[in-house]
Design brief:
Layout: H1 3-16, H2 19-42, E1 45-48, E2 51-55, H3 59-72, H4 81-87, E3 90-93, E4 104-116, E5 121-124, E6 130-135, E7 142-143, E8 148-153, H5 155-176, H6 184-203, H7 208-216, E9 223-227, E10 232-235, E11 244-245, E12 252-255, E13 259-266, E14 279-284, E15 287-296, E16 307-314, E17 325-331, E18 342-345, E19 350-351, E20 357-363, E21 366-371, E22 373-378, E23 381-385, H8 387-394, E24 398-402, H9 404-414
Antiparallel strand pairs: 1-2, 3-24, 4-13, 4-17, 5-12, 6-8, 6-11, 7-10, 8-9, 10-12, 13-16, 14-15, 14-17, 15-16, 18-23, 19-20, 20-21, 20-24, 22-23
Helix pairs in contact: 5-6
Length: 421
Amino acid sequence: MNSNTHHENILQLDAVMTPEKRRFNLSKIALALFVLSTLAFLAQPVLAGGDHAPVAKESGDSVTQMASTDEHGEQALKLTEAQQALAGISLLPLSSDSLNIANLNLDIRATATLVVDRDRTATLAPQLDVRVLARHVVPGQEVKKGEPLLTLGGAAVAQAQADYINAAAEWSRVKRMSEGAVSVSRRMQAQVDAELKRAILEAIKMTPAQIRALESTPEAIGSYQLLAPIDGRVQQDIAMLGQVFSAGTPLMQLTDESYLWVEAQLTPTQTTHIQVGSSALVQVGDKTLAGKIIGRSHELDSVTRTEQVLVSMHNPDHVLHAGQFAELYFAGSTTDPNGSGIVLPDAALTRGGDGDWQIFIQDEDGFESIEVEVVQRQRGLSLVRGPELEKAKQAQRNVVVAGAFFLASEQAKAGFDIHAH
């Protein structure tokens, strides 16, 4: 049968079809479309707590899960550790020192510079002329106390070691003699001479163990190993093989970077309420750390008319280094009756569905948003507070400081009632 004949047959059937049969066929088509749309709806994943739940198999299961969502109220987003890492989510305990600085005022700030902690820094400068015989470290290397750094020698070193061996042997001989066999002055002279020669060896950074070993092995004179006096990182290393350095020349510096100092120059107006021992906030790039004011010069620079303020801060994992620029924020002179709040990076804040500022808190259920009030904003930092925030602090929750935008977008896609309004 050709197509023309088939078309004519259809027209003939349609012509003889009664109106009731036409309505019946249209009803069947509408019913089929309704069934297809219902199946498509039931095939959608049911959202609960921010995660995509398994596909519902029956309409009854879907109704049950949606009802439990309504009863739960505010929902939590659940993410595995791998998902958190992929989304770039970083957390901090709400009790962290860097978040909780009493009476912090973001308007009281100063540009500062990170410097080494002088209490945890050692400069290696032997007090005799020395020659570099061997190197055992490279600049920037982390070393432990007692590890060899350089092998040093030279004529002055050999003379100092020989003088000590002779003086120590003489003092040992005199010390064994009876009091009647040697005068008091002679005994004292021998002892003082031995101690003087020992002090010279200590001045070239020989350790007590190395000095004792020298007494028993005098053939080893002429060189010694310069050992690390502290745990730290090798810096300002200028020693070259074969080079001779005059007495007192710094060969290298060891710095323990677990702590750093922050130097800032403040005007007399800014230092009005600065007190030694009070807290400060240090901002370096996207990192914020708590510090403690350890000193102020109490004198003004003749050129800049500013006063130097020193802040000590812990530097976990040695992520910051001397020479970097920083911003220092100080506490104000008055206490806010509404609470001091916490300081968060701007990346921790997002807008909720109702336009209010929100942050994300992690608890045993997952990530939940809470409303906060933004009190101050300055250079990428926000001072926030709120009753829900205080409750979260008391419960010792964690706060999201990075990746909040991802959580907010997931929350919006899930269609949660953001603040259970």
